[in-house]
Amino acid sequence: MLLNFGQPLNGVIQMGFIVEDIHRSMREWADKLKIGPWFLREHGVFASQFYRGEPTNVELSIAMGFAGHMMFELIQQHNDVPSVYQDVVRQRGFGFHHYGFGTDQYEEAVKAYRDRGYVLAYEAVPSPGGGVAYFDTLADLPGMTEIIKLTPMMEAVFTVMQQASVGWDGSNPVRPRPPVPTMPARWGAPGA
Predict the structure, then answer these.
(1) Do the Cβ atoms of 43 and 61 come closer than 8 Å?
(2) Which parts of the chain fold into alpha helices (H)?
(3) For the chain, what percentages of helix, strand and coil (3-state, to nearest 5) are there?
């Protein structure tokens, strides 16, 4: 089944990159790669987050933008606490970090990765009812794998971002994250 923004449910919906300067990276990626517009959240600290089983307080700026149906995520860490982001920067430097796997079966997907022997390196609740879990898949893949709990509201937000990229002329390249729109009909929105 395809999501409203064109990627497969229970498949890869995002490619994540760690950057040194998120504002410079958004400008360069928009100019050179035509990815955008970017939806930016600056200096956020998720209320509930765990790094390798221990509570943490990673402070991040996150920008999301689309090229076609693929979401690209730029991440800049602002504090010096241990994290999955610093793990990769120390190993390889800035650049590609993870594949984002969007699922409506979050708990089952997390269990499946654990059952395969992958280490749960980071887990957070970025929005009410949401959840992300990063598994260290670097021994088998070129990056980590992030499991994204794809709720109806998250799909709607990602769809607004993707639709903003269709025919985008380069204007207004950095925007705040959009408000949660009406739920897509297939999730059982009122009147569906």
Answers:
(1) yes
(2) 22-33, 84-92, 106-115, 152-165
(3) 25, 35, 40
How many Å apart are CA 31 and CA 70, to the nearest integer?
17
From edge to edge, which strands make up the β-sheet containing 54-55?
Answer: 54-55, 49-51, 119-124, 132-136, 144-149, 95-103, 11-18, 70-77, 60-67, 38-44, 174-176
Q: Which two tokens stand for residue 160?
A: 């607004």
Class of domain 11-169: alpha beta
Total residues belonging to the chain: 192
| The one-letter amino acid at 124 | A
CA 7 to chain centre: 14
Tokens 């943490």 -> residue? 56
Q: What 8-state DSSP symbol labels residue 138?
A: T
Tens digit of each residue's pLDDT, the chain (192 residues): 899 999 999 999 999 999 999 999 999 999 999 999 999 999 999 889 999 999 999 999 999 999 999 999 999 999 999 999 999 999 999 999 999 999 999 999 999 999 999 999 999 987 777 899 999 999 999 999 999 999 998 999 999 999 999 999 999 999 998 775 544 444 443 333
Domain ranges of the chain: 11-169
